[in-house]
């Protein structure tokens, strides 16, 4: 992130905080005719600061793109004001602070809104303001009456009434309601139905699976809780029991979770939408033969003037002036005609499916892949639209770049805390089988945290060959070529314990179990990493970006290899011996050593720690010497090598990398 953007975001933070204080103290002075804040108003001021900070972060008021046009900025500010009112009302109701002035609460929110509109209007009047003519994107889509399910509506109303009476029984030991609690039931029922229509809760056409339906229920519960809190504060309804209100909404949410579980168990004919995450799914999704590279032909009369490429692309990439040079340097695109270029700005499959198949030599998508829900399907669809040898240019806001920007945006210690929560939500949850569906139900796949290794591995998995990558602005751009069919030899995994195919005794392929130390899809990048970085001392890949931070720690102390004890117990490996290697890594050895390796069972502790070679050639010779000695004197060789390895590990600090 540039210094100019950081300064601008800091200015937004400080100016917004200044407007909030001006709104609060102005309202307080109008109501009390004094500026001395103490007692309940002082507690309210602290609550205002806390809720405002949460709103500032949650609503992302620091985003620069939120202020590109006047109307969009006003709507964005109005949403923040509503969130502030919701948050303050919930806090007041929860802590039963009924004595706090309603005028001070809602007056602060109103004055804050007016001050923001005034400032935005003054900025708009500045000559040559860059954000005056930007169109406003409207994403609101009204609910179609024809899609509303009457049975869902009736069932939900029944569950609400049941929850209300059940909570009343838990509180008073009787199902009989107090006279004024009938009013509360009617209020909750009307409010719940209104909020449910806004969140499209009864629109059965939007239900894809159980997690999506449950996500809508949770959103409805949160919104209803906020609105009922505002009503209690605004109309002094503190005589209503908080246990009755919030308990009813909580019990209703539990009932709805159980109801939709049964609903989807008995709902027939639903085709579950999953991404292509395995070889079996890949075979079902796409069928292709080998891909010979298709050469450019100009016999059809299409424009082949090299200058037209820059003319076409310059219309789109003004925000990325280095992109054209990057694409031209990485790929042979000078003679591609206008008709063979697909300039995309999309995140969904529907917009790709209408394009003709195998019709383009260059496809550029200006939307980041972090917002694509079905990412592998998306890449495979682009794969089908390109001719053999065609190029795909895309971008990703990688995990590494996001982490750098995170610590530039926040102070060091705050950044570490916030980043942990961000990582757990946007990186861990979508990878776990039990939380993946719920995560995508809430986020629709947007703002997903994707590492550099994962996106490059996905490209190779889907049949592309990555030619180049470059950081431009806040994104990592890549150029990939349609060079092969989608991979059919392995399946990517997300689990903590992974299974790696290795060459074992007599050349038989065994599955070695290890703790995951690499990013997902890294298994498809071994050849790419070797081509670009080669090997370093110790025979490891140089600058292996596929390894995670905690993975390096686990490798250093061999923690990642603990699950290999299972392979040892099964008799697939022995305690000491040459490491089981992948086909690609084994192919780097001399043929004689390859043949020699296959004659012996691999081991858990390799002879590397006995000889400590530094170069790849020395590693090969070390293993050759060990295998020759083991062939002649197996027991003595095992004993000598094992003692030497333990000596280096315990007393000389030998560690893995």
Briefly say what this structure is:
This protein has helices at 3-32, 40-58, 70-94, 102-124, 150-172, 181-198, 210-234, 242-265, 279-285, 307-314, 323-330, 350-353, 375-385, 399-409, 412-428, 433-443, 452-461, 526-533, 549-556, 564-569, 583-586, 591-598, 608-611, 616-632, 634-651, and strands at 341-344, 360-365, 386-396, 464-472, 475-482, 497-503, 509-515, 574-576, 603-605. The chain has 657 residues and is α/β, with parallel strands linked by helices.
Number of strands: 9
Helix content: 40-55%
Q: Provide mean pLDDT, rounded.
A: 77
What distance separates the N and C termini?
32 Å
The largest pleated sheet is described as: 5 strands, mixed
By DSSP (H or I, 4+ residues per run), the number of helices equals 25
**Strand-residue proportion:** 5-15%
**Class per helix and strand makeup:** alpha/beta
Total domain modules: 5
Low-confidence sequence ranges: 132-146, 268-272, 295-306
Shape: elongated
The gyration radius over C-alpha positions equals: 31 Å
Strand order across the largest sheet: 1-2-3-5-4
Give an account of the 3D structure:
53% of the residues lie in helices and 9% in strands. With 657 residues, the chain is an alpha/beta fold. It has five domains: 3-124, no CATH class; 147-265, no CATH class; 308-393 and 458-488, Vaccinia Virus protein VP39 (Rossmann fold, 3-Layer(aba) Sandwich), CATH 3.40.50.150; 399-449, no CATH class; 497-651, no CATH class.
